[in-house]
Amino acid sequence: MVCKNCAAMPKPSKRLLALIAVAALLPLGTQAEKADRLKDLTIEADQRSVLDLIRRHYVVNGNVVMSQGTLTMRAHQAEVRETPDGYKTAVLTAGAGQMVSFRQKRDGVDEFIDGSAERIEYDSKLETVRFIGSAVVRRLRGTAVADEVTGALITYDNLAEVFSAAGGATPAANGRVKMTLAPRNAEAAASAVPGAKPASAR
Q: Where is the Organic solvent tolerance-like N-terminal domain (predicted)?
């Protein structure tokens, strides 16, 4: 919905739209990198956006980039709502032939959660991220893929750091949930293979 009084007001500039969106969304954050919750959230977009300040409903369009600390989400469109108790929910959707992306550093380690889907639903109160449609979520150690989950629906619980996945029409996994899990101890894995050297010795 659009503010009833907006018709009589001059159209705000893109810079003003971005500043209003930033001010409205500051509490948005996740538990993965705890410091992110204390950072400003910024929003960039290319196209006309609608900000209903009365109902706390914001729709941002065109090459949208939402970032807060180490958290970055990219989409064609983002729709954000604020609950009466100050929490935010965000629904990000992809454009034709594109995907929505999510990336955030894990707290205390050099690892990132990196994912993509046709649609992402983010809830700052429950601290969950839902990847919907051709979903792929990876845990990266630096730039190397440690674990990977694919499915039609993947839910990531930031508080518990737990994934749940469901199958469906997913070209990458032929309709099935697929998980690829790296050994927890790379040194032990290397020693189990005759003639193999641990990464530190190469």
A: 42-158
List per-residue pLDDT tens for the chain, 202 residues long. 444 444 444 444 443 333 333 333 323 233 456 777 667 777 889 988 888 888 989 899 999 998 888 889 999 999 999 888 878 889 999 999 999 999 999 888 889 999 999 999 999 888 899 999 999 999 898 888 988 999 999 999 888 878 888 876 545 445 677 878 777 665 344 444 445 444 444 4
Residues 70 and 81: their CA atoms lie apart, in Å, by: 22
Do 99 and 117 contact (CB within 8 A), yes or no? Answer: yes
Specify the 3-state DSSP secondary structure of 57.
strand
Question: How many domains are contained in the chain?
Answer: 1
For residue 22, give the CATH number of its domain: 2.60.450.10
Is 199 in a helix, a strand, or coil?
helix
> Which residue type does 117 have?
A
Q: Which residues contact 50 (CB under 8 A, 6 or more apart)?
A: 2, 58, 59
Helix (H), strand (E) at residue 21: helix 14-24
